[in-house]
């Protein structure tokens, strides 16, 4: 299974840190965020990676190279301007092939067991995507979507509690079928697919952090550094 790591965003909320360093290369636990993902994927035998880059993208390509030092192969999808999540994936589809692929946001940190997605099969007649959900963080208290005990995902009422999409999922190429090249957010596509009943989900209760601000980066770095010393 191929894995796409999303690494093209500007990271506006992380400024001034991202003025000179792309967000996925910011360090936590003495290691860039994106390297945490790469190392864990390599251990699981997920060796075919695609990384999209835009803002300060050359730094990411210089740091990660061809992936050989981690035992993986990395292909790059370069965007002259950030195309947002769906737009970036659509541009990279030619590198991802015809089979379902994993997508991982390069600016989150999690100990989610990625192998769970390698065991899961998308129903050829129905399921176009399978999403990982986590508890709602303080900065996003109402969450993104609702999900029942069977893993059926639904759009939530504006005031209802829901779960937060972790930025980790399994997608079929047909999820993006018919969409044009260019800048495109993922949320409208998810809303449409959920209404069509073609999205499933799972809840993960473990560690997950959206490293969206310098303060959250600092807290996570302190946590990981302390854990390494124990």
Number of helices: 6
Q: Which structural category do the helix and sheet elements fall into?
A: alpha/beta
Topology, number of strands: 13
Which spans have pLDDT < 50 for at least 5 consecutive residues? none
Give the SSE string.
EEEHEHEHEEHEEEEHEEH
CATH superfamily: Spore Coat Polysaccharide Biosynthesis Protein SpsA, Chain A
Q: Please summarize the sheet with the most strands.
A: 7 strands, mixed
Arithmetic mean pLDDT? 91
Taken from the alpha-carbon principal axes, the silhouette is globular
Q: CATH architecture, please?
A: Alpha-Beta Complex
The CATH class: Alpha Beta
Output the CATH topology.
Answer: Spore Coat Polysaccharide Biosynthesis Protein SpsA, Chain A
How is the topology of this model organized?
Elements: E1 3-7, E2 27-28, E3 31-32, H1 33-43, E4 48-53, H2 57-64, E5 73-78, H3 84-96, E6 101-105, E7 108-110, H4 115-119, E8 129-134, E9 145-147, E10 153-155, E11 164-171, H5 187-195, E12 199-203, E13 208-210, H6 214-229
Parallel strand pairs: 1-4, 1-6, 4-5, 8-12
Antiparallel strand pairs: 2-3, 6-11, 7-13, 8-11, 9-10
Description:
The chain contains 6 helices and 13 strands. By secondary structure, the protein is of the alpha/beta class. The protein has a single domain, classed as Alpha-Beta Complex (Spore Coat Polysaccharide Biosynthesis Protein SpsA, Chain A), CATH 3.90.550. The strands form 4 sheets. Strands 5-4-1-6-11-8-12 form a 7-stranded mixed β-sheet. The protein starts with a strand and ends with a helix. About 40% of the residues are buried. The mean pLDDT is about 90.
